[in-house]
Amino acid sequence: EGGRVLPAVGARLLATRPVAALLALACIAGLGFLAYGARSADLGVSYIPSLPAESAERRASDAAARGFGPGVLAPTDVLVEHDGLVRSLPQLVELQRLLSRERGVDDVLGPAQPAGTPFEDLTVSKDGGAARFAVLLDSEPTGTAAIDDLDRLRERMPALLREAGLPEDARTAYAGETALASETTASLEADLGRIAIAMFVIAFVLLAIFLRAFLAPLLLIFGSVLAFAASFGIASMLVPDANFVFYVPLVAGVLLIALGSDYNVFIAGRIRDEMRRRRMREAIAVAAPAASRAITVAGLTLAATFALLAIVPLRPFRELALLMTIGVLVDALVVRTVLIPSLLAVFGRASWWPGSPQRPPSTTAFLERVSARTGYGDGQAWEVTRATLATLAERIPARESREVARQLPGGLAESLRRAEGACEPFPCEEFVDRVARRARVSRPHARQDARAVIATLVEALSPTEVDYVRAALSDDYRGLFGDAVDVRAERFERAPEPSPAVG
């Protein structure tokens, strides 16, 4: 079984821990480097620049910006409030001069305007307690540059008031499209952390319930976050000045995490399902190619679909099309097909803690089948089972013994663990002799009892594990196994749900 995206040889290499560790580190380093580009991204509102270049509103805006400066479209009002400001006209004029010299400021209208101009009555309030400055910025009023200039002006304002000679307790306020855009983006950035935490908690809970594991969901969510961060970094390198409409990254992030969750369930669920029949390495080698092909096809289809958003002649749609297309491709071609299988291979069975893809039968259910085959009561069935498993642990390699023990309940697994590590190449006749001595039965009975236990063991183990055990034994053990392989048709999984393991 395999897919076209990951050839069989590549999939087996991917499933080996050293290669998987190198691939995981390479993916994390590469995606992390790409994600670093997102540091240059800024958020803005950019209402008018979002319109098509040929629209009447956009043409009028461009003409006004060329003739009078970009800030003329939406001047920022700076209000200074303090009792008796009307008596501080020279200081207000000085403040206007200082404001006009700030970075990002094109011009300032205020109390320094010549007498008799229409703006004169709009600079100082009638009660003399407030002064107004109309600040024209040198960039598009709702863009990222204008927002940064206004934020910097807010920070500088106390120093400017002191330098102009105005009272230190004078109050300042800001109004206009730029101030509104600044508040909008600041509120979004402040809420992003809470939104991200809520989204990750929900995704983790759902994945943990589905996979019945703790570490695997964390690895899957880590992959989703890394995919989005890398995609955002790539898009930031492609978007002019890395300026995004404020809601585009949020929408793209939610969509990519949601789509990534679908891929998570598909590939992790497929690996978990294969682990019921195979070891971890073989499960990844089989499941990763099969799942990666479906994920890649789905990713290419989704990427093409999101790319169609660029047809809409509005800047937010084109930014969203770019970010989603890159994100889906990175997620489908790198994260789900390479990074996630590599991480699962590195962490091995610990990925599925505290659960296990392979649910062992209960000790009671196992002994009942041994009793049915031998006619013994529970006590004697336990003795012959313990004797057979302990002898098997002495005959097969320690690794095979540990793998068999993982698929058995605690009491039976302990019989294997106590004797593992010997790996003595004794023949089948010696195997029967050791079982007879341990179980205190005659040699003919020991042979029949061992066959009954091994037949039950074959029903409890995954088919792949049975193959490994048989491969570790010499040909003379065929008689002991008998038709045990054919017993797989009556595996424990097809029986009613076993009771919890005993012992």
> Might you state the CATH topology name of the largest domain?
Multidrug efflux transporter AcrB transmembrane fold
End-to-end Cα distance, whole Å, is: 38 Å
Total strand count, please?
6
Mind telling me which CATH architecture of the largest domain this is?
Up-down Bundle
Helices and strands: which structural class?
A: mainly alpha
Give the uncertain stretches in residue-range form: 1-6, 484-491, 493-503
User: What is the succession of H and E elements?
Assistant: HHEHEHEEHEHHEHHHHHHHHHHH
Mean pLDDT across the residues is 82
Largest beta sheet: what is the strand line-up? 3-4-2-5
Radius of gyration: 36 Å
Specify the overall morphology: elongated
Give the fraction of residues assigned to helices.
55-70%
Q: Main β-sheet: number of strands, strand sense, barrel status? A: 4 strands, antiparallel
CATH class of the largest domain: Mainly Alpha
Number of domains: 3
For CATH, the homologous superfamily of the largest domain is named as: Multidrug efflux transporter AcrB transmembrane domain
* Beta-strand content bin: 5-15%
Transmembrane segments: 19-38, 192-211, 218-238, 244-269, 290-314, 320-347
InterPro entries: DUF2267 (IPR018727), DUF2267_sf (IPR038282), MMPL_dom (IPR004869), Mycobact_MmpL (IPR050545), SSD (IPR000731)
Main location: membrane
Domain SSD: 221-345
